[in-house]
Each structure stands twice: as structure tokens, then as C-alpha cells.
Specification:
Layout lengths: L1 H24 L5 H14 L1 H22 L1 H5 L5 E3 L6 E7 L4 H16 L4 E7 L4 H4 L2 H12 L4 H9 L6 H10 L4 H8 L2 H15 L9 E4 L2 E4 L3 H14 L1
Parallel strand pairs: 2-3
Antiparallel strand pairs: 1-3, 2-4, 4-5
């Protein structure tokens, strides 16, 4: 449906251009003549249609993000680091078993260290690989449980640096982080944890551009993947524009 609507809109834009040309040649031109001009224009300039499709897709994706802004930026259950009035807010959707998420975790940590007053980071647990790994959801619940003791980022980055996320290893990392283990285990069993994660998955389904992890939202723009060069550029642009 999205592709059909986007294509129709793009063709309409090109048709307007074609009709304008036709009008300049005479207002009494037949429909077939106008269609011929449009076809000729598309054949000679196919990149115009491609660029229009890309731009329209981006506008639709940004509109989808705007529609879920409260869930993105204001869910009190999410862990966030940085001032609420920061110039830039970075939201990351991630899975602890995602290799690309692990690659970009150092970048995110550097951003937090480099811009403590200008950047706010919102962590969005999205254990989409749990069906295959059987450990992603448990790791997400562990991080959220650590957050209840004020040690979310400590365990978060430890999990990102870990290849094996078995239950025993997760518990060992939690203990190394200095958590109250009795409270930690109780919190992991809290049904609110599952509700939080389920809501995150529902949110992700409302964002068409989010087809995998990591997925970053930087202010009102977005980028999929772990290309830190592009992430740096987008972040710096956002800081300059704020």
C-alpha cells in the first residue's frame, strides 16, 4: 500500500510538470499529446521519478515517527541518559544479540561521554532476535532490572560486550555490576517487564522504516544500521540546527 501510494503521488508530481509543458505549447492539446509529453519526460529523466519516490518515502517515514513521538521520547519506563531539555535526543532500538548493535555501542557511549549536556539518549529494548536466540528477551529484562537499581548503563554495555548471553552469564554480569541479586531476580520476574517489552515491539511495528536493529532516531530524523560515519554526520547536523 505504501509503495502504491508513493508511486501514485510521484507520478502526479511528474504529470504536473508534463502538463505545464503541454500548456505552454497550447491549451487545446489532446490528452494523448499530454500523455506523450509525460512519457517522453520520464524516459529522458528517470532519475526524477526515483528521487521523488525516495523523498516521498522519507516524508512518510518522518510522519510515522511524529505520530508516535510520545512513545518514542516520553515513555517513563524507558531508561534515558542526559538532560530532558538537551539540544538533541537520540533514541536507539536494539537487541543484545545483534552484531551491528554491538558494533555501534561504543559510538553511543562516546556520544554520551562527549556531549553530556547537549545529548539525551533513550534506550529502547527491542529483543526481536529472541525467537532464534532464546536469550535476547531475558537480557533485555536483566538490563531493565538493573535500571531499577540505577545501574542500567553499567549492565547494558557489559551485555553489549558479551558474546554469550546465557542465563548464568547474565547473572554473573549482574553480580559483577554490584547489583542486589535478590531484588534483581525479583524484578526480572515482574510482569511489568514483559508488558514494557511487548509495548516496545508494538511501537516498532508502527514505524515502517524500522525493519531491523540497530535503528536510531536523532531528533526528527532516523537512520538504520551501524554506519558510525553517517551517525556522526547526522548528530553533528542536529547539534548545529538546534
Amino acid at each position: 500500500m505504501k509503495i502504491f501510494a508513493t508511486t501514485a503521488m510521484a507520478l502526479a508530481l511528474v504529470a504536473v510538470s508534463g502538463c505545464a509543458q503541454a500548456e505552454s505549447k497550447g491549451r487545446d492539446m489532446k490528452r494523448a499529446d499530454v500523455e506523450s509529453i509525460i512519457k517522453e519526460y520520464l524516459m529522458e529523466n528517470p532519475e526524477i521519478l526515483r528521487e521523488a519516490l525516495i523523498e516521498l518515502d522519507k516524508k512518510e517515514d518522518r510522519a510515522a515517527l511524529a505520530a508516535v513521538a510520545d512513545q518514542l521520547y516520553k515513555d517513563p519506563r524507558d531508561v534515558s541518559i542526559g538532560p530532558k531539555n538537551a539540544k538533541v535526543t537520540v533514541v536507539e532500538f536494539f537487541d543484545y544479540n545483534c552484531g551491528f548493535c554491538k558494533q555501534s555501542s561504543d559510538w553511543l557511549k562516546e556520544v554520551m561521554d562527549r556531549h553530556p549536556n547537549d545529548v539525551r539518549v533513550v534506550f529502547k529494548e527491542l529483543p526481536i532476535l529472541d525467537g532464534r536466540t532464546k536469550t535476547s528477551r531475558n537480557a533485555a529484562k536483566a538490563a531493565l532490572a538493573a535500571g531499577r537499581q540505577g545501574k542500567y548503563t553499567l549492565l547494558h554495555f557489559a551485555l553489549m560486550n558479551e558474546r554469550s548471553l546465557t542465563q548464568d552469564r547474565v547473572l554473573a554480569l549482574a553480580e559483577e555490576a554490584g547489583l542486589d541479586m535478590d531484588k534483581f531476580k525479583r524484578d526480572m520476574e515482574d510482569s511489568e517487564m514483559d508488558r514494557h517489552l511487548d509495548d516496545g515491539l508494538l511501537l516498532a511495528n508502527r514505524i515502517p522504516a524500522l525493519t531491523g536493529t540497530p535503528f536510531f532516531v536523532i531528533n526528527d530524523d532516523f537512520i538504520a544500521g551501524a554506519d558510525t560515519t553517517k551517525l556522526d554526520k547526522m548528530l553533528e547536523d542536529a547539534l548545529k540546527d538546534s
